[in-house]
Write a structure and sequence with these properties.
This protein is mostly helical. The chain has 22 helices and five strands. It is globular, with a radius of gyration of 23 Å. The N and C termini lie far apart (about 65 Å). It comes from Lacimicrobium alkaliphilum.
């Protein structure tokens, strides 16, 4: 490739990156599509691999998953010795539901770099391991190495715990899990008391009196359906069921509402801390906030009458949501407290939920979450629909029908065939939602009743 051609490609990639950072996703896609067309129209070789991989990465940043997978596949073919290209291909295939293809790509990545904990953990999550087909021995062997950085060790411990649980070696599974969680917690700067104070402040500021006084304005759009609550409660399942309805699209876990809120708060002044920001949030222009949120979700939304925003942390903003978007629907997914906390504890989150790596902190956070949710349901009577996970998996049609009624949607049988929904999913449940409905996660915490005894005591004392 000539120097001029190389410079042109680099310029196009920089342009696309800048457009993405500016939130101009459609314009970025147009630039990337033009570059992809150029690559497709000529012969490329190993020297192009890094540019092709960058193209794929930028496609993934604008949720063009199939394009990203196509070009990560091409990058891995051009440079088959680059483990990262196989790993990135696997992540895109998993998002699209090709779990078998994702596992094969991870096998290739791990043959090149077996100590890649993130690849090992992702591979472990793709299916239920069996006695005859698992990676337990490989994981234990890799963990014996003394030179692994902590981040890789954490991923490896979580992968080992998951596979040991799959083959019903529960005591060994919890031992591995606790090692991973303790190591992760040791590298976090976190104080659960700060989160407790934030939730208490929100309830104090958004009192029943304020919510009644400020009601009556807001942006009138009825498009958004917020599914929220604690993570790992089944919110992705209800999202996929609703998202299989012809009138509903799935926008994913959006940070848009909090970003729109913080943008407006900054225009009022610079709060000294988060508690001051909460106080300022009660003085926002709620109509402008709702409108700003809706427009910020484009182009992921707007092509169907309703869309789902499934960010669990939106439970913090329910008062603001109802003031800014009075016609929005809010669905709170509730699950058995111990099952919820164990499911959170055993999941390694990419960035969020720092409370999840210590059982005492997890219990304290859960209680604060429940207290705030009780506040919202008390101050906004009839405006939040609670869906019980255990009822949903045992009696799906009976449980889902009131959800559709609440969302002003007619019944469609497709909602019970959610596993056939080919739409992408980038959540932690991306593998599970490709399966038929199952009840195997109900009561799973009981396998660890002794290890979770203090957590159970904490929850019982506060509920």
């Amino acid at each position: 490739m000539s120097l001029a051609a190389t410079d042109k490609i680099a310029q196009q990639l920089r342009q696309a990156r800048s457009l993405i950072e500016a939130g101009q996703r459609q314009q970025a896609f147009d630039v990337l599509a033009l570059l992809a067309s150029d690559f497709a129209g000529r012969e490329i070789n190993g020297s192009d691999a890094s540019s092709v991989a960058e193209l794929a990465f930028l496609f993934s940043q604008i949720k063009a998953w199939s394009d990203a997978a196509l070009w990560f596949c091409k990058a891995s073919e051009l440079a088959p010795d680059k483990a990262i290209y196989h790993y990135n291909l696997a992540t895109m295939l998993r998002v699209q539901g090709d779990l078998e293809g994702a596992e094969k790509a991870l096998d290739r990545a791990l043959r090149l770099n077996p100590a890649d904990g993130e690849a090992q953990n992702l591979r472990a999550s793709l299916r239920t391991q069996s006695e005859s087909q698992n990676h337990i021995g490989e994981l234990e062997q890799v963990l014996c190495k003394q030179t692994l950085p902590p981040k890789q060790q954490v991923h490896l411990y979580y992968a080992l715990a998951k596979e040991l649980e799959d083959v019903q070696r529960y005591e060994d599974a919890f031992t591995a899990l606790k090692k991973g969680a303790d190591l992760r917690r040791a590298h976090l700067n976190y104080d659960v008391r700060r989160d407790q104070a934030i939730m208490q402040k929100i309830a104090q500021v958004f009192s029943e009196k304020l919510l009644q006084e400020k009601a009556g304005s807001g942006y009138t759009s009825a498009e958004p359906i917020f599914i929220l609550g604690m993570p790992r409660t089944g919110s992705t399942l209800i999202e996929r069921m609703l998202g299989s309805h012809s009138q509903v699209s799935m926008a994913g876990e959006l940070n848009n509402f909090s970003q729109a809120m913080m943008g407006q708060i900054s225009s009022l002044g610079q709060p000294g801390n988060i508690l001051e920001a909460i106080e300022l949030s009660a003085e926002l222009n709620f109509t402008a906030l709702g409108e700003r949120y809706i427009h910020s979700t484009r182009p992921d939304t707007g092509h169907k009458p309703y869309f789902i925003d499934k960010l669990p942390l939106n439970f913090l903003y329910i008062g603001l949501i109802k003031l800014a978007l009075p016609n929005a629907k809010i669905i709170h997914v509730q699950r058995d407290p111990m099952d919820t906390c164990y499911a959170v504890y055993k999941h390694l989150f990419a960035h969020a939920y720092p409370f999840s790596y210590n059982l005492n902190e997890l219990g304290q956070y859960y209680l604060a979450n429940q207290e705030l949710m009780a506040h919202w349901k008390r101050t906004l009577p009839g405006q939040i629909l609670t869906v019980n996970y255990e009822q949903l998996v045992s009696e799906p049609k009976l449980t889902l029908k009131p959800v559709l009624d609440y969302c002003n949607l007619e019944w469609q049988d497709n909602c019970l065939q959610f596993q056939q929904n080919s739409d992408a999913s980038a959540t932690g449940s991306a593998a599970q939602i490709r399966q038929r409905l199952y009840t195997g996660s109900v009561g799973k915490w009981r396998y660890y009743k002794a290890q979770l005894a203090e957590l159970e005591k904490t929850l019982k004392s506060g509920l």
